[in-house]
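Hey team,

Filing this mostly as a record. A colleague (T.K.) asked me to run one chain through the structure pipeline before their review meeting, and I want the input and output archived in the tracker in case anyone asks later how it was produced. No errors, nothing strange. Just documentation.

Input sequence:
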Amino acid sequence: MSEPSPAVAAAVEGELRLLDPAVRASAELLSRVLHPEYREIDSTGRVWDRDMLIASLTGDDAPHPGPLTASRMRGVQLDGQLVHVTYDTEAKGLFAHRSSLWRLNGVGWLLYFHQATLFDHAPHAGPDDEG
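Output structure:
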């Protein structure tokens, strides 16, 4: 298997940073990773913008989901300024398929869009399965 492009490597590194509880709890660190025009559709269907998400994750009553475990992370560079990353997460028995778009701007690769879809963890065979 070939090495990922520098763009894909940067996007994957960004995704892994966002899984870090210390990053998720810091408005300053989140603002360094989220694009100014960031949008998210979470696993419940709720739509978030950058300011809403930062406030929710860093507020006094912020949820603490515990550690997120990522698997099957992969990325593809769509053009010179856009990378698509997909992966699965598990936290406290909840599983989600995740899809992110990372966009290059003057400061580097920033998360532009993210969507999560809950799924039942059951053995299945599909085109994304490794093995």
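Quick notes for T.K.: The mean pLDDT is 89. The CA atoms of residues 56 and 62 lie 6 Å apart.
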